[in-house]
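User: Please fill in residues for this 186-position structure.
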């Protein structure tokens, strides 16, 4: 939970500084620290934390990896301009990686939604309850927008976080199950 709080702090810094070229270094530093928090969160999800909740853990790891990838893209993006023009272009790319109007149009990043869902999923008993509680953060009309397609587990190479996540078809089945059970409109 401590790492989740740190992650939330870094996300807040990113959300408040990504619009200003002068704050580019603050954003980059926050993205790097956030990525370290995501790795620590992954390392702390163990059998004792959520016993017999395999799907919940896989869902958490899929969101963690999606956020991790977004941070990775943000840290290593270059455009090819000079000086402040380059910083401005990089910040626009970071905005593109962290925000999607299909998920939320209230200046709340997808990464913050992931962290809120993870925190709620750990506190609650199941995914249905977590999504209902986090409905205020995201109005998901297109559930594919919450997790980018390259963040799902694959049969080939998998990152240390990704390898314990959900396959895309498992995620789609999970979302359909929640919808069909009278869960929130996601």
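Assistant: Residues filled in for all 186 positions:
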């Amino acid at each position: 939970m401590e790492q989740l709080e740190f992650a939330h702090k870094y996300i807040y810094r990113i959300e408040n500084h990504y619009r200003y070229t002068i704050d580019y270094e603050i954003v980059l530093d926050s993205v790097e620290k956030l990525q370290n928090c995501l790795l620590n969160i992954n390392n702390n999800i163990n059998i004792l934390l959520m016993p017999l909740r395999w799907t919940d853990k896989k869902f958490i790891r899929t969101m963690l990896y999606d956020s991790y990838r977004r941070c990775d893209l943000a840290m290593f993006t270059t455009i090819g301009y000079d000086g402040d023009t380059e910083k401005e272009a990089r910040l626009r790319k970071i905005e593109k990686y962290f925000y999607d109007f299909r998920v939320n149009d209230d200046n709340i990043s997808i990464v913050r939604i992931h962290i809120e869902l993870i925190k709620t999923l750990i506190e609650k008993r199941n995914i249905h309850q977590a999504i209902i509680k986090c409905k205020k953060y995201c109005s998901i009309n297109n559930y594919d927008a919450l997790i980018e397609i390259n963040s799902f587990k694959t049969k080939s190479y998998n990152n240390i976080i990704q390898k314990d996540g959900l396959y895309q078809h498992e995620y789609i089945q999970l979302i359909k199950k929640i919808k069909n059970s009278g869960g929130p409109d996601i």
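For context: The CA atoms of residues 103 and 146 lie 6 Å apart.
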